[in-house]
Design brief:
By secondary structure, the chain is an alpha/beta fold. The chain has helices at about 15-30, 40-50, 65-85, 100-110, 125-130, 130-140, and strands at about 5-10, 30-35, 90-95, 115, 145.
Length: about 150
């Protein structure tokens, strides 16, 4: 039923829940998993500030810092997938609009399903403009699943 499953990864608890559901489905259908991360520099800046014990980061991270943080996050997601018994896992990251990039990647790899957490690390603006998972469900040309 699902040959390729794309999972939006942002490091939130909801994102991990979505990954675990996707792993369960991948196990049932022998699917490939594609983990997609679309790092947002402002989120990385906040995380860097929190890690270094500052409430707010004073500067935006460099492209290399954003990429390194994304690679770490994807490595953790790959470890969760492996813990769930999934070894056919591919990763991808690109900075930009999460919904558009996740849908574009799903189309490129021929995904049958996109799985996301219902609420991730999106900004306050997402409450007004709509969440990434809502945007994906409107843009996607394949099935979508939003996990609580």
């Amino acid at each position: 039923m699902f040959n390729k499953i794309v999972v939006g990864i942002d490091g939130s608890d909801m994102s991990e829940a979505a990954l675990r559901v996707a792993c369960d489905l991948a196990g049932k259908y022998s699917s490939e998993l594609h983990l997609v991360h679309t790092p947002q520099p402002q989120t990385v800046a906040f995380a860097m500030g929190a890690v270094s014990a500052y409430a707010v980061a004073t500067t935006m991270p460099s492209q290399s810092e954003v990429r390194a943080a994304g690679e770490k996050l994807l490595s953790r997601a790959e470890a969760v997938a492996a813990e769930c018994g999934q070894t056919d896992v591919h990763t991808y990251q690109e900075v930009g609009d999460p919904a558009k990039l996740i849908v574009a990647y799903a189309e490129k790899c021929g995904a049958d399903l996109i799985v996301t957490g219902r609420r991730g690390l999106g900004s306050l603006g997402a409450l007004v403009q709509g969440s990434t998972s809502q945007s994906i469900s409107h843009l996607a040309k394949c099935a979508t699943l939003s996990v609580l």
